Amino acid sequence: MKSLYKRLILDTATKSIYVALYLGDEELQVRFQEGLNDHSVTLLPMLEEMLKTIHWKLEDLDEVYIGIGPGSYTGVRIGVSVAKMIGFMHPIDIYTVSSLFLLASSSDSSEIVSFIDARRNNAFMAYYKQNNHVLTEVIGDCLENIDTFLSKVSPLATVIKQGCPKGYKVFTSHMGQKVSELHDLVPNYLQITEAERKKG
Amino acid sequence: MLVMGVETSCDESSVSIVKDGKLVLSNIVLSQIDIHQAYGGVVPEIASREHVKGITRVFDQALKKANVTLDDIDLIAVTEGPGLIGSLLIGINAAKTVALDRQIPIVGVHHIAGHIYANHISNELEFPCLALVVSGGHTELILMKEHMDFRKLGETQDDAVGEAYDKIARVLHLPYPGGPQVDYLASLGMDKYHFPRPLIDSPDYNFSFSGLKSHVINLHHNLMQRAEEFEVADFCRSFQEAVTDILVHKTKKAAKEYQVKQIIVAGGVAANKGLRKKMKEWIQDIPVFFPAMEYCTDNAAMIAVAGYHQYQKNPTSSNMMLNGNSRLNLE
Fold this sequence. Notes:
The complex is a heterodimer. By secondary structure, chain A is of the alpha/beta class. Chain A contains six helices and ten strands, in the order βββαβαβαβββαβαβα. In chain A, α1 packs across α2 (74-89). Chain A is globular and about 50 Å long. Chain B folds into two domains: 2-116 and 296-317, Nucleotidyltransferase, domain 5 (2-Layer Sandwich), CATH 3.30.420.40; 126-291, Nucleotidyltransferase, domain 5 (2-Layer Sandwich). Chain B has helices at residues 33-37, 44-66, 85-102, 111-117, 119-122, 161-171, 178-186, 210-225, 232-257, 273-282, 300-313; strands spanning 2-7, 12-19, 23-31, 75-81, 106-110, 129-134, 139-144, 151-155, 262-266, 288-289. The interface between A and B is medium-sized, with 36 and 34 residues.
Protein backbone atom coordinates (compact mmCIF):
# COMPACT_ATOMS: atom_id res chain seq x y z
CA MET A 1 0.00 0.00 0.00
CA LYS A 2 2.81 2.39 0.90
CA SER A 3 3.82 2.86 -2.72
CA LEU A 4 0.48 4.60 -3.35
CA TYR A 5 0.98 7.31 -0.75
CA LYS A 6 0.30 10.83 -1.98
CA ARG A 7 3.32 12.87 -1.05
CA LEU A 8 4.35 16.53 -1.15
CA ILE A 9 7.97 17.57 -0.90
CA LEU A 10 8.69 21.23 -0.21
CA ASP A 11 11.92 23.12 0.22
CA THR A 12 12.36 26.90 0.42
CA ALA A 13 15.43 27.00 2.65
CA THR A 14 17.70 28.44 -0.02
CA LYS A 15 17.28 30.95 -2.82
CA SER A 16 15.49 28.30 -4.88
CA ILE A 17 12.01 26.86 -4.45
CA TYR A 18 11.45 23.12 -4.86
CA VAL A 19 7.94 21.66 -4.84
CA ALA A 20 7.14 18.10 -5.93
CA LEU A 21 4.09 15.85 -5.81
CA TYR A 22 4.68 12.12 -5.71
CA LEU A 23 2.39 9.12 -5.92
CA GLY A 24 4.47 6.55 -4.10
CA ASP A 25 7.92 6.87 -5.67
CA GLU A 26 6.59 8.30 -8.93
CA GLU A 27 7.03 12.01 -9.55
CA LEU A 28 3.76 13.48 -10.91
CA GLN A 29 4.55 17.19 -10.67
CA VAL A 30 7.70 19.14 -10.00
CA ARG A 31 8.65 22.81 -9.95
CA PHE A 32 12.12 24.14 -9.36
CA GLN A 33 12.65 27.87 -9.48
CA GLU A 34 16.06 29.42 -8.98
CA GLY A 35 17.22 32.88 -8.09
CA LEU A 36 14.00 34.90 -8.18
CA ASN A 37 13.94 35.30 -4.43
CA ASP A 38 10.16 35.69 -4.26
CA HIS A 39 9.22 32.63 -2.19
CA SER A 40 6.45 34.44 -0.36
CA VAL A 41 4.68 35.48 -3.58
CA THR A 42 5.25 32.30 -5.53
CA LEU A 43 5.06 29.28 -3.25
CA LEU A 44 1.31 28.99 -2.58
CA PRO A 45 0.08 29.88 -6.11
CA MET A 46 2.64 27.37 -7.44
CA LEU A 47 1.42 24.64 -5.11
CA GLU A 48 -2.21 25.46 -5.91
CA GLU A 49 -1.60 25.18 -9.64
CA MET A 50 0.27 21.88 -9.25
CA LEU A 51 -2.49 20.34 -7.13
CA LYS A 52 -5.16 21.48 -9.59
CA THR A 53 -3.29 19.97 -12.53
CA ILE A 54 -3.57 16.47 -11.07
CA HIS A 55 -6.91 17.09 -9.31
CA TRP A 56 -5.56 16.75 -5.80
CA LYS A 57 -6.46 18.76 -2.75
CA LEU A 58 -4.24 19.35 0.27
CA GLU A 59 -6.48 17.04 2.28
CA ASP A 60 -5.75 14.16 -0.13
CA LEU A 61 -2.09 14.13 0.88
CA ASP A 62 -0.78 11.32 3.07
CA GLU A 63 2.68 12.72 3.76
CA VAL A 64 4.44 16.08 3.58
CA TYR A 65 8.24 16.26 3.52
CA ILE A 66 9.57 19.67 4.44
CA GLY A 67 13.12 20.96 4.01
CA ILE A 68 14.05 22.58 7.33
CA GLY A 69 17.46 24.04 6.54
CA PRO A 70 20.10 24.34 7.93
CA GLY A 71 20.38 28.10 7.82
CA SER A 72 18.35 31.12 8.73
CA TYR A 73 17.48 32.38 5.28
CA THR A 74 13.99 33.97 5.51
CA GLY A 75 12.68 31.45 2.98
CA VAL A 76 13.09 28.47 5.32
CA ARG A 77 10.39 29.83 7.60
CA ILE A 78 7.96 30.23 4.70
CA GLY A 79 8.09 26.53 3.81
CA VAL A 80 8.03 25.40 7.43
CA SER A 81 5.02 27.63 8.21
CA VAL A 82 3.14 26.21 5.22
CA ALA A 83 3.96 22.60 6.21
CA LYS A 84 2.90 23.28 9.81
CA MET A 85 -0.41 24.74 8.64
CA ILE A 86 -1.08 21.73 6.37
CA GLY A 87 -0.36 19.40 9.29
CA PHE A 88 -2.55 21.51 11.57
CA MET A 89 -5.52 21.47 9.20
CA HIS A 90 -5.41 17.78 8.25
CA PRO A 91 -4.26 14.54 9.85
CA ILE A 92 -1.28 14.27 7.50
CA ASP A 93 2.11 12.94 8.60
CA ILE A 94 4.78 15.64 8.40
CA TYR A 95 8.41 14.63 7.92
CA THR A 96 11.44 16.91 8.11
CA VAL A 97 14.28 16.58 5.62
CA SER A 98 17.64 18.30 5.58
CA SER A 99 17.77 20.86 2.78
CA LEU A 100 21.41 19.80 2.31
CA PHE A 101 20.19 16.27 1.64
CA LEU A 102 17.72 17.55 -0.98
CA LEU A 103 20.55 19.50 -2.58
CA ALA A 104 22.76 16.39 -2.60
CA SER A 105 19.95 14.33 -4.15
CA SER A 106 20.24 16.39 -7.34
CA SER A 107 23.59 14.70 -8.05
CA ASP A 108 24.28 11.13 -9.08
CA SER A 109 27.93 11.22 -7.99
CA SER A 110 29.11 8.58 -5.58
CA GLU A 111 30.51 11.14 -3.14
CA ILE A 112 28.82 14.46 -2.57
CA VAL A 113 29.40 17.54 -0.47
CA SER A 114 26.31 19.71 -0.44
CA PHE A 115 26.99 23.34 0.24
CA ILE A 116 24.96 26.43 1.24
CA ASP A 117 27.08 29.57 1.60
CA ALA A 118 27.01 31.20 5.04
CA ARG A 119 29.56 33.97 4.27
CA ARG A 120 32.91 34.77 5.94
CA ASN A 121 34.47 31.56 4.56
CA ASN A 122 31.83 29.48 6.32
CA ALA A 123 29.14 27.30 4.83
CA PHE A 124 26.41 24.90 5.84
CA MET A 125 27.69 21.58 4.55
CA ALA A 126 27.05 17.84 4.68
CA TYR A 127 28.86 14.86 3.15
CA TYR A 128 27.09 11.90 1.55
CA LYS A 129 28.03 8.70 -0.25
CA GLN A 130 25.70 7.41 -2.94
CA ASN A 131 25.15 3.91 -4.22
CA ASN A 132 22.31 2.95 -6.55
CA HIS A 133 20.31 6.16 -5.81
CA VAL A 134 20.57 5.63 -2.08
CA LEU A 135 22.43 8.30 -0.16
CA THR A 136 24.15 7.58 3.12
CA GLU A 137 25.11 10.42 5.41
CA VAL A 138 28.82 10.44 6.28
CA ILE A 139 28.98 13.88 7.91
CA GLY A 140 25.64 15.41 8.87
CA ASP A 141 24.56 19.05 8.60
CA CYS A 142 27.11 21.43 10.03
CA LEU A 143 28.22 25.05 9.86
CA GLU A 144 31.95 25.18 9.47
CA ASN A 145 34.92 26.88 7.85
CA ILE A 146 34.89 25.69 4.25
CA ASP A 147 38.54 24.59 4.06
CA THR A 148 38.38 22.76 7.38
CA PHE A 149 35.34 20.79 6.25
CA LEU A 150 36.75 19.99 2.81
CA SER A 151 39.95 18.68 4.39
CA LYS A 152 37.86 15.95 6.03
CA VAL A 153 36.25 14.64 2.85
CA SER A 154 37.52 12.79 -0.21
CA PRO A 155 39.10 15.13 -2.79
CA LEU A 156 37.02 13.29 -5.39
CA ALA A 157 33.72 14.37 -3.81
CA THR A 158 31.51 16.57 -5.98
CA VAL A 159 30.58 19.87 -4.34
CA ILE A 160 26.94 20.70 -5.09
CA LYS A 161 25.78 24.30 -4.63
CA GLN A 162 22.60 24.19 -6.67
CA GLY A 163 20.41 21.76 -8.56
CA CYS A 164 16.89 20.40 -8.73
CA PRO A 165 16.43 17.73 -6.04
CA LYS A 166 15.47 14.19 -7.03
CA GLY A 167 12.76 13.81 -4.46
CA TYR A 168 12.40 10.02 -4.67
CA LYS A 169 15.82 9.69 -3.02
CA VAL A 170 14.23 10.96 0.22
CA PHE A 171 12.20 7.75 0.21
CA THR A 172 14.90 5.35 -1.08
CA SER A 173 17.40 6.78 1.44
CA HIS A 174 14.87 6.92 4.32
CA MET A 175 15.87 10.48 5.09
CA GLY A 176 12.52 11.79 6.38
CA GLN A 177 12.21 12.29 10.14
CA LYS A 178 8.63 12.02 11.32
CA VAL A 179 7.46 15.03 13.35
CA SER A 180 5.89 13.92 16.62
CA GLU A 181 4.65 17.30 17.93
CA LEU A 182 3.64 19.50 15.02
CA HIS A 183 3.23 22.68 17.07
CA ASP A 184 6.88 22.48 18.11
CA LEU A 185 8.27 22.14 14.57
CA VAL A 186 10.88 24.80 13.78
CA PRO A 187 13.62 25.13 11.16
CA ASN A 188 17.09 23.78 11.86
CA TYR A 189 18.92 27.10 12.17
CA LEU A 190 22.17 25.49 13.38
CA GLN A 191 23.25 28.76 14.97
CA ILE A 192 21.89 31.17 17.51
CA THR A 193 21.07 34.71 16.41
CA GLU A 194 23.71 37.44 16.45
CA ALA A 195 21.83 39.22 19.25
CA GLU A 196 21.95 36.08 21.41
CA ARG A 197 25.63 35.59 20.62
CA LYS A 198 26.52 39.16 21.61
CA LYS A 199 24.50 38.90 24.78
CA GLY A 200 26.42 35.75 25.71
CA MET B 1 -19.76 36.59 7.61
CA LEU B 2 -16.94 35.10 9.69
CA VAL B 3 -13.52 36.66 9.14
CA MET B 4 -10.28 35.19 10.40
CA GLY B 5 -7.65 37.86 11.09
CA VAL B 6 -3.93 37.13 11.18
CA GLU B 7 -1.30 39.58 12.47
CA THR B 8 2.46 38.93 12.72
CA SER B 9 3.97 42.28 11.76
CA CYS B 10 6.21 42.73 14.79
CA ASP B 11 6.56 40.76 18.02
CA GLU B 12 3.03 39.47 18.54
CA SER B 13 1.56 36.41 16.79
CA SER B 14 -2.18 36.87 16.76
CA VAL B 15 -5.20 35.16 15.21
CA SER B 16 -8.78 36.30 15.70
CA ILE B 17 -12.27 35.32 14.56
CA VAL B 18 -14.69 38.22 14.04
CA LYS B 19 -18.35 38.03 13.00
CA ASP B 20 -19.71 40.60 10.51
CA GLY B 21 -16.81 43.00 11.06
CA LYS B 22 -17.94 43.73 14.59
CA LEU B 23 -18.35 40.88 17.06
CA VAL B 24 -15.03 39.48 18.29
CA LEU B 25 -15.46 35.74 18.94
CA SER B 26 -11.79 35.24 19.78
CA ASN B 27 -8.59 37.23 19.74
CA ILE B 28 -5.53 35.21 20.71
CA VAL B 29 -2.29 37.16 21.12
CA LEU B 30 0.98 35.34 21.72
CA SER B 31 3.32 38.09 22.86
CA GLN B 32 7.11 37.84 22.70
CA ILE B 33 7.61 40.81 25.00
CA ASP B 34 9.41 38.79 27.70
CA ILE B 35 11.90 37.48 25.14
CA HIS B 36 12.79 40.86 23.62
CA GLN B 37 12.94 42.53 27.04
CA ALA B 38 16.44 41.14 27.54
CA TYR B 39 17.63 43.04 24.46
CA GLY B 40 15.90 46.34 25.20
CA GLY B 41 13.95 46.18 21.95
CA VAL B 42 12.60 43.85 19.29
CA VAL B 43 15.28 41.73 17.59
CA PRO B 44 13.89 40.97 14.08
CA GLU B 45 15.52 37.54 13.64
CA ILE B 46 14.33 36.38 17.07
CA ALA B 47 10.84 37.73 16.34
CA SER B 48 10.67 35.70 13.11
CA ARG B 49 11.85 32.56 14.89
CA GLU B 50 9.22 32.95 17.59
CA HIS B 51 6.43 33.50 15.04
CA VAL B 52 7.17 30.26 13.19
CA LYS B 53 7.41 28.43 16.51
CA GLY B 54 4.03 29.58 17.77
CA ILE B 55 1.99 29.98 14.59
CA THR B 56 -0.16 26.82 14.59
CA ARG B 57 -0.89 27.06 18.33
CA VAL B 58 -2.32 30.56 17.85
CA PHE B 59 -4.59 29.37 15.00
CA ASP B 60 -5.66 26.40 17.10
CA GLN B 61 -6.55 28.48 20.15
CA ALA B 62 -8.39 31.13 18.13
CA LEU B 63 -10.67 28.51 16.53
CA LYS B 64 -11.28 26.70 19.82
CA LYS B 65 -12.03 29.89 21.76
CA ALA B 66 -14.49 31.03 19.07
CA ASN B 67 -15.98 27.52 18.99
CA VAL B 68 -15.84 27.37 15.18
CA THR B 69 -13.96 25.31 12.61
CA LEU B 70 -12.08 26.41 9.51
CA ASP B 71 -15.13 25.33 7.48
CA ASP B 72 -17.05 28.22 9.04
CA ILE B 73 -14.58 30.90 7.91
CA ASP B 74 -15.66 32.99 4.89
CA LEU B 75 -12.69 35.33 4.52
CA ILE B 76 -9.13 35.53 5.78
CA ALA B 77 -7.49 38.91 6.39
CA VAL B 78 -3.79 39.20 7.08
CA THR B 79 -1.43 42.10 7.80
CA GLU B 80 0.44 42.86 4.59
CA GLY B 81 2.64 45.62 6.04
CA PRO B 82 4.25 47.75 7.20
CA GLY B 83 6.33 45.79 9.70
CA LEU B 84 9.29 43.45 10.01
CA ILE B 85 9.45 41.60 6.71
CA GLY B 86 10.55 38.23 8.14
CA SER B 87 7.70 38.36 10.63
CA LEU B 88 5.05 39.50 8.12
CA LEU B 89 5.85 36.63 5.76
CA ILE B 90 5.00 33.96 8.34
CA GLY B 91 1.46 35.24 8.92
CA ILE B 92 0.95 35.83 5.21
CA ASN B 93 2.00 32.33 4.18
CA ALA B 94 0.09 30.65 7.00
CA ALA B 95 -3.01 32.64 5.93
CA LYS B 96 -2.49 31.75 2.27
CA THR B 97 -2.30 28.05 3.18
CA VAL B 98 -5.73 28.33 4.83
CA ALA B 99 -7.11 30.23 1.81
CA LEU B 100 -5.81 27.57 -0.58
CA ASP B 101 -7.10 24.73 1.55
CA ARG B 102 -10.61 26.12 2.13
CA GLN B 103 -10.84 27.94 -1.21
CA ILE B 104 -11.80 31.19 0.53
CA PRO B 105 -10.75 34.73 -0.40
CA ILE B 106 -7.74 36.34 1.26
CA VAL B 107 -7.10 40.08 1.64
CA GLY B 108 -3.93 41.90 2.72
CA VAL B 109 -4.59 44.61 5.29
CA HIS B 110 -2.52 47.69 6.14
CA HIS B 111 -1.41 47.47 9.77
CA ILE B 112 -2.44 51.07 10.48
CA ALA B 113 -5.85 50.54 8.88
CA GLY B 114 -6.15 47.74 11.44
CA HIS B 115 -5.27 50.05 14.33
CA ILE B 116 -7.82 52.60 13.11
CA TYR B 117 -10.52 49.91 12.82
CA ALA B 118 -9.80 48.72 16.37
CA ASN B 119 -12.06 51.67 17.21
CA HIS B 120 -14.90 50.18 15.17
CA ILE B 121 -15.15 47.18 17.53
CA SER B 122 -16.73 49.14 20.39
CA ASN B 123 -17.92 52.20 18.45
CA GLU B 124 -19.36 52.89 15.01
CA LEU B 125 -17.06 54.97 12.79
CA GLU B 126 -18.76 58.13 11.49
CA PHE B 127 -17.39 60.12 8.58
CA PRO B 128 -15.63 62.40 8.04
CA CYS B 129 -13.45 61.06 10.79
CA LEU B 130 -10.00 62.11 11.98
CA ALA B 131 -7.61 59.44 13.21
CA LEU B 132 -4.57 60.21 15.33
CA VAL B 133 -2.30 57.19 14.91
CA VAL B 134 0.33 56.96 17.62
CA SER B 135 2.61 53.96 18.14
CA GLY B 136 6.22 52.84 18.29
CA GLY B 137 6.47 53.14 14.51
CA HIS B 138 3.88 55.80 13.58
CA THR B 139 2.70 59.29 14.40
CA GLU B 140 0.16 60.40 11.80
CA LEU B 141 -3.02 62.36 11.39
CA ILE B 142 -5.34 60.66 8.91
CA LEU B 143 -8.60 61.93 7.46
CA MET B 144 -11.25 59.36 6.46
CA LYS B 145 -14.22 60.43 4.31
CA GLU B 146 -15.65 56.91 4.10
CA HIS B 147 -14.76 53.33 5.00
CA MET B 148 -11.24 52.29 3.94
CA ASP B 149 -10.47 55.74 2.54
CA PHE B 150 -7.36 57.29 4.05
CA ARG B 151 -5.73 60.67 3.47
CA LYS B 152 -2.59 61.47 5.42
CA LEU B 153 -2.71 65.07 6.66
CA GLY B 154 0.67 64.95 8.37
CA GLU B 155 3.19 62.68 10.02
CA THR B 156 6.35 62.65 12.08
CA GLN B 157 9.44 63.90 10.33
CA ASP B 158 11.73 61.79 12.54
CA ASP B 159 10.97 59.62 15.61
CA ALA B 160 7.56 58.10 16.16
CA VAL B 161 6.07 59.16 19.47
CA GLY B 162 6.24 55.64 20.96
CA GLU B 163 9.87 55.40 19.90
CA ALA B 164 10.67 58.64 21.74
CA TYR B 165 8.92 57.26 24.84
CA ASP B 166 10.98 54.06 24.69
CA LYS B 167 14.25 55.95 24.27
CA ILE B 168 13.54 58.28 27.20
CA ALA B 169 12.62 55.24 29.29
CA ARG B 170 15.91 53.57 28.42
CA VAL B 171 17.90 56.63 29.52
CA LEU B 172 15.95 56.68 32.78
CA HIS B 173 16.68 52.92 33.22
CA LEU B 174 13.00 52.00 33.24
CA PRO B 175 12.06 48.43 32.28
CA TYR B 176 11.14 47.58 28.66
CA PRO B 177 8.71 48.45 27.15
CA GLY B 178 9.19 51.92 28.56
CA GLY B 179 6.11 53.76 27.30
CA PRO B 180 3.66 52.53 29.95
CA GLN B 181 6.30 53.12 32.66
CA VAL B 182 6.81 56.73 31.62
CA ASP B 183 3.02 57.19 31.53
CA TYR B 184 2.64 55.77 35.04
CA LEU B 185 5.48 57.85 36.54
CA ALA B 186 4.15 60.97 34.77
CA SER B 187 0.96 60.60 36.79
CA LEU B 188 3.06 60.94 39.98
CA GLY B 189 5.25 63.87 38.89
CA MET B 190 5.04 67.56 38.00
CA ASP B 191 5.85 69.50 34.84
CA LYS B 192 8.95 71.12 36.33
CA TYR B 193 11.09 71.42 33.22
CA HIS B 194 8.72 72.88 30.60
CA PHE B 195 10.38 71.12 27.68
CA PRO B 196 10.03 72.62 24.18
CA ARG B 197 7.03 71.70 22.01
CA PRO B 198 8.52 71.37 18.50
CA LEU B 199 6.30 72.24 15.51
CA ILE B 200 3.31 72.93 17.79
CA ASP B 201 2.44 76.10 15.86
CA SER B 202 3.62 75.02 12.42
CA PRO B 203 1.01 75.59 9.70
CA ASP B 204 1.05 71.92 8.63
CA TYR B 205 0.09 68.74 10.48
CA ASN B 206 3.57 67.27 10.75
CA PHE B 207 5.30 66.28 13.97
CA SER B 208 8.88 66.07 15.22
CA PHE B 209 9.97 64.37 18.42
CA SER B 210 13.68 63.85 17.85
CA GLY B 211 14.71 67.32 19.10
CA LEU B 212 12.52 67.05 22.18
CA LYS B 213 13.93 63.62 22.90
CA SER B 214 17.54 64.91 22.63
CA HIS B 215 16.70 67.88 24.84
CA VAL B 216 15.36 65.58 27.56
CA ILE B 217 18.29 63.18 27.28
CA ASN B 218 20.85 66.02 27.38
CA LEU B 219 19.29 67.58 30.46
CA HIS B 220 19.28 64.19 32.16
CA HIS B 221 22.95 63.75 31.27
CA ASN B 222 23.85 67.19 32.65
CA LEU B 223 22.00 66.61 35.90
CA MET B 224 23.77 63.27 36.32
CA GLN B 225 27.17 64.85 35.60
CA ARG B 226 26.59 67.55 38.19
CA ALA B 227 25.28 64.89 40.58
CA GLU B 228 22.15 66.96 41.08
CA GLU B 229 19.14 65.28 42.57
CA PHE B 230 15.99 65.08 40.53
CA GLU B 231 12.71 63.18 40.50
CA VAL B 232 12.32 60.71 37.62
CA ALA B 233 8.56 61.24 37.88
CA ASP B 234 8.99 64.98 37.18
CA PHE B 235 11.08 64.15 34.14
CA CYS B 236 8.39 61.82 32.86
CA ARG B 237 5.60 64.29 33.54
CA SER B 238 7.44 67.15 31.81
CA PHE B 239 8.12 64.98 28.76
CA GLN B 240 4.57 63.66 28.63
CA GLU B 241 3.06 67.14 28.94
CA ALA B 242 5.18 68.36 26.01
CA VAL B 243 4.25 65.38 23.84
CA THR B 244 0.55 65.38 24.61
CA ASP B 245 0.31 69.17 24.18
CA ILE B 246 1.61 68.79 20.63
CA LEU B 247 -0.56 65.77 19.77
CA VAL B 248 -3.78 67.18 21.15
CA HIS B 249 -3.24 70.70 19.81
CA LYS B 250 -2.64 69.49 16.26
CA THR B 251 -5.48 66.99 16.38
CA LYS B 252 -7.89 69.68 17.54
CA LYS B 253 -6.76 72.04 14.81
CA ALA B 254 -7.17 69.41 12.08
CA ALA B 255 -10.57 68.35 13.42
CA LYS B 256 -11.82 71.94 13.15
CA GLU B 257 -10.36 72.56 9.71
CA TYR B 258 -11.88 69.40 8.23
CA GLN B 259 -15.09 69.60 10.30
CA VAL B 260 -14.99 65.97 11.30
CA LYS B 261 -17.85 64.20 13.09
CA GLN B 262 -15.52 62.25 15.35
CA ILE B 263 -11.91 61.82 16.38
CA ILE B 264 -10.39 58.42 17.00
CA VAL B 265 -7.03 57.60 18.51
CA ALA B 266 -5.26 54.45 17.37
CA GLY B 267 -2.05 52.51 18.03
CA GLY B 268 -0.13 51.43 21.12
CA VAL B 269 0.20 54.99 22.50
CA ALA B 270 -3.64 55.22 22.48
CA ALA B 271 -3.30 53.32 25.77
CA ASN B 272 -1.43 56.29 27.30
CA LYS B 273 -3.55 57.63 30.15
CA GLY B 274 -2.12 61.15 29.98
CA LEU B 275 -3.05 61.39 26.30
CA ARG B 276 -6.55 59.99 26.92
CA LYS B 277 -7.19 62.54 29.67
CA LYS B 278 -5.94 65.56 27.73
CA MET B 279 -7.84 64.62 24.56
CA LYS B 280 -11.11 64.44 26.51
CA GLU B 281 -10.38 67.66 28.42
CA TRP B 282 -9.26 69.81 25.51
CA ILE B 283 -11.70 68.56 22.88
CA GLN B 284 -15.26 68.66 24.12
CA ASP B 285 -17.28 69.68 21.09
CA ILE B 286 -16.30 66.66 18.96
CA PRO B 287 -16.60 63.09 20.28
CA VAL B 288 -13.20 61.44 20.87
CA PHE B 289 -12.93 57.64 20.91
CA PHE B 290 -10.18 55.28 21.97
CA PRO B 291 -10.03 51.53 21.40
CA ALA B 292 -10.53 49.25 24.39
CA MET B 293 -7.14 48.71 26.07
CA GLU B 294 -6.85 45.14 24.71
CA TYR B 295 -7.15 46.45 21.12
CA CYS B 296 -4.59 49.26 21.46
CA THR B 297 -1.57 47.02 21.04
CA ASP B 298 -1.07 44.74 18.03
CA ASN B 299 -3.86 42.19 17.63
CA ALA B 300 -5.60 40.27 14.86
CA ALA B 301 -9.16 41.34 15.71
CA MET B 302 -8.47 44.81 14.30
CA ILE B 303 -7.05 43.22 11.13
CA ALA B 304 -10.19 41.08 10.73
CA VAL B 305 -12.44 44.15 11.16
CA ALA B 306 -10.47 46.23 8.63
CA GLY B 307 -10.29 43.22 6.27
CA TYR B 308 -14.08 42.83 6.44
CA HIS B 309 -14.61 46.44 5.32
CA GLN B 310 -11.91 46.21 2.69
CA TYR B 311 -13.57 43.14 1.21
CA GLN B 312 -17.04 44.73 1.35
CA LYS B 313 -15.72 47.72 -0.54
CA ASN B 314 -13.75 45.72 -3.07
CA PRO B 315 -14.72 42.02 -3.27
CA THR B 316 -12.22 41.41 -6.05
CA SER B 317 -9.32 42.34 -3.79
CA SER B 318 -8.62 38.68 -2.91
CA ASN B 319 -5.05 37.89 -3.84
CA MET B 320 -3.02 34.69 -3.51
CA MET B 321 0.02 36.56 -4.90
CA LEU B 322 0.02 38.70 -1.76
CA ASN B 323 3.47 39.60 -0.48
CA GLY B 324 4.78 41.24 2.67
CA ASN B 325 5.68 44.91 2.28
CA SER B 326 7.70 46.41 5.11
CA ARG B 327 7.02 49.96 3.87
CA LEU B 328 3.45 49.62 2.66
CA ASN B 329 1.69 52.95 2.05
CA LEU B 330 -1.75 53.50 3.58
CA GLU B 331 -3.14 55.93 1.00
